[in-house]
Amino acid sequence: MALALHGLVKRFDTTLAVSGVDLNVPVGSFFGLLGPNGAGKTTTLSMAVGLLRPDAGQAQVLGHDVWADPVEAKRLLGVLPDGVRLFDRLTGAELLAYHGLLRGMEPGVVDQRATELLDVLALGADNRTLVVDYSAGMKKKIGLACALLHGPRVLVLDEPFEAVDPVSAALIRDILQRYVSGGGTVVFSSHVMEVVERLCDHVAILAAGTIKRVGTIDEVRGARSLEDVFVEVVGGRTSTGSELAWL
Amino acid sequence: MAVTALPVAATRPVSTGHFVRLKLRVTANGLRGATWKIILFVLGVFYALLFAAGGFVLFMLPGALDSVRGYGIAAALGGALLVLGWLLLPLVFFGVDESLDPARFALLPLPRRTLVKGLFAAALTGIPAVATLIATGGLVLGAILLDGVAAGLAAFVGVVSGLLLCVALSRAVTSAFASALRSRRSRDLAAVLLAVLATLIAPLQLVVMNGAAATDWARFAGAVTVVGWTPLGAPYTLGADVAEGRWWAVPLKLVIVGVTIAGLLAWWSRSLESAMIGTAAGGGPAAVGRRGRALTPTQRLLAGGLPRNRFGALVGREVRYWWREARRRAGVITFAVVGIVLPISISMSNDDAGLTAASISMIFVGALAAVNLANQFGYEGTAYAANVVAAVPGRAELHSRVLGLTVYVAPIMGVVAVVISSLAGRPEWIPALAGILLAAYGTGLAAVLPVSILGAYAMPDTSNPFAISSGGGMAKSLYSFAAMLVAAVLCAPYVIAGLLLGDAWLWAALPVGLVYGGAFYALGAHLSGKLLDRRMPELLQAVNPRH
């Protein structure tokens, strides 16, 4: 398993944000974690990558426990957290160099990969704008570049497509698909069905802090559309036609 | 937005009175229903009247005492101070009077001339303007007492034109700043400037007090004459000119004031356009590289021969952050000012203070340098997640952060040692003072590093260097005071032993201080590093402003 979560629990004050999540992400899969706002997606992924200490449960990356053997587990991980700032008083190039050297990479390799990433993501290798002055979409892209730079075996991305324009989103999709076809594993969270349906071979639906459905995309959606399954699982209501008749 | 020409007969022209009435109505409505607002308003009026009465007396007094020279000094310097106040106060308390926001008029078909005249008149109908008029009224009475009604009349014309100048100046400058401050870069800069201004208040007081005690007033005469001919002092010195028999100066100075007001109003009218549209022309991202095209990413991060590895990267980022992040930069600048001013004021306040007093102030300065790190993780907030994800060892993290700060504070501490020794006339103190600074810096770091991990608190995402979060941030900043106290206690044995040692101390202090401070720092960093290794996720939670 690329990523294995067992019984993860997290409580904030009085609310139980995540109540026992079990999840197995096979190596080489493109895994979508679906859930409505407030379902516990960010909390789950934070615990999976070592940013948030769980109250109970384990998280393993390719067999290395994130909390018992953090150095080895984190070496294999690339992470794009959501709602987390970057070291945004650096320029894009400086930020990538920082991440590369932080990961113990060779300076020459850092330079070559950083320049290439800046180029491909259209961030400009010579751009001296500080990341704090980037647009939201550019920030996502530089964050993704930081996560990819050291060639991780597992990528964990929290809402990678939020605030990204369609052109950049297509570019990010291409990069991620190439990454998976090269043997990498991607886990990403989203609440946009369309993106998940288009990209993922595996999905899990998270609601109210527990996994409601999990499996390959065909297993989960069956004969219906993913959106129908999602709305049913999450417990949303569908319009019957009798209410709001004045519409 | 272009203002289209309207058929003149179809609409009644908008008079200046509309704006004045609107301003009064907005002010009155703003008070409705909220008791605390009314209390604040009454307090404001009270303070304004207090200020006005005080100013009136100060401006009138030289005239009442029949001192022509005193009157001239009060008029020129007091008037200039008043104009500067009108310039600076709205910038410090930015947006203090936006009851008639120009942006609200953007959709109305008003000619710019009418708008400027109206907003100007509205700005004149406010408490500050009335208070200023009352205060400077003292000049009119003073001139009458000195030289009769003719001088009083000249002073009256001057005082009214001075008020127009003050209001025009403050409106023009705030409007120009409003568009300039829309970019993050200039906001950062303004925040730092304010921090510097705030820390400069103490030393300025010192300089003025000493200056006032030492100088004889005759030396001021030249300065007074010069200021009287600048737009700052020109309107207020008309009465003095008449009293001293320089009738010819009155029309000349009126021309100076008039031209200045016209220029300011023209400037205001220009910047009003961008304030109305709401987006500044020059606010977008700029600074796309000129220099550094040949530099690779790692070379850009690692300036100044840093090792090309993880530690070098950590230090390189820290060095940049101490300069590029407004709060940190304000901290360093404040330290530089306080670090130099405080020992000076201590040694100036008691005459034969000697080495003991200097040593004690050095302990304070050294510990103060370390306190910059008291909430080091709070500065960058959740960005610290990158280091957590990369599993940076605690000790490397702390050493790199200390080194990044030291790059800035070590030269400042060197300057402090040299300046204090030189002012005392004892250059042989330099190594001793430097030694104490290093020892106190070391013990200060030992005390501050655990505090920065256990007592970290989230700071709001703003560029205001004075902003701290409401929830417990204030109480937690007490930790840094505690850390300073601990640092002083840890450092005390070294200083006491040294002072008992006598003259040998003067050369032994530096190496011993280096070792003493270094040992405490090494111990503190070792223990704190282990602590950090265990608490990285908890620390990340603590500095997250959203929790």
TrEMBL record, chain B:
Transmembrane segments: 38-61, 73-94, 115-144, 150-169, 189-208, 247-268, 330-348, 354-374, 402-423, 429-457, 478-499, 505-527
Entry protein name: Transporter
UniProt keywords, alphabetically: Membrane, Transmembrane, Transmembrane helix
